Amino acid sequence: MQNGSHASSDAEANDPNCAFCQRSEFADHILKETPTFLIVADHAPLVEGHILIIPRHHYTCYGAVPAELDAELYALKREVQRFFAQYYAPAVFWEHGVFRQTVFHAHLHCFPFGSTEYDLSKELHSRIIRSQDDVRAWYTARGHYFLMEDTSCSLLFAPEMDLYIHIIRDVLWHGVSSRTHQTSWRSQQQRYAEGGPLIAATMDKWHQFQQQGAGYADETSTR
Ligand SMILES: [Zn+2]
Ligand SMILES: [Zn+2]
Predict the structure, then answer these.
(1) Sign of the alpha-carbon dihedral angle for 117, 70, 158, 19
(2) What φ, ψ does residue 122 adopt, rounded to 5°?
(3) How many domains does the chain have?
(4) What is the greatest pairwise CA distance in the chain?
């Protein structure tokens, strides 16, 4: 992000080596597509309802996504929140701001985990995030991060492995174990192998949700 002019021309490029630009990981499970974004079912879901919000253009992470996309991102998040509220539990959003990313293309994980039970008073987070501007500001000044947002607040964490493992084990794991009968964290390969029925169920419910007219099209008919 040091050179903004580069970033914007890179952003226009469709990266032939990127699984998200090429849609190879989710070609069969796109839930929604707009001129700017995709909502897809994750191909290796942690739980039923695990979906991703992905900008169509190639940006490294949301810290590199320009402000023009913010309004639509917020609208899509609200749509996912309504979907989760109706079928699952309140949304927890999660982003690898490059740190621990597996696909190097911005994507926001959406999990129907309910409350996270993260203890704010421990102050393990580095920033409380009020808007995407705060994420961009951190990324420009400090680089990598990871981010977690629940119904009460959005928190940015410094890219430290111990901290990351703590949040996964003590916060995110609570969400997985409360929604499934799993007793341990499954690998990406295992989740991919077992993901078919979860993806099908997510897609089914999403289509029901859209048919009720609860989708986001109404809200953005003026765009
Ligand atoms: Zn890409
Ligand atoms: Zn990811």
Answers:
(1) positive
(2) -75, -15
(3) 1
(4) 49
132 three-state secondary structure:
helix
Report residue 7's pLDDT band, with 50, 70 and 90 as the boundaries. very low
- Ligand number nearest CA of 105 is 1
| Ligand lying nearest the CA atom of residue 104 | 1
Question: Which CATH number goes with the domain that contains 147?
Answer: 3.30.428.10
Domain contains 47: yes
Tokens 């949301």 -> residue:
62
pTM over cut 0.85: yes
With CA atoms as reference, report the closest residue to 179 among 48, 51, 42.
48
**pLDDT tens across 97-141, in order?**
988 888 899 999 999 999 888 888 989 999 999 999 999 999 999
Please check whether residue 221 lies inside any domain of the structure. Answer: no
With respect to residue 3, please indicate whether it lies within any of the assigned structural domains: no
Adjacent-strand bridge partners of 147 = 95, 156
Q: CA torsion, points 185, 109, 84, 193, in degrees to nearest 10?
A: -50
Residues within 5 Å of ion ligand 2, judged at the Cβ atom: 96
Gap from CA of 222 to ligand 2 centroid (Å) = 32
Rounded Cα distance, 166 and 183, in Å: 17
Confirm whether 110 is domain-assigned: yes
Dist. CA 101 → ligand 2 center (Å): 5
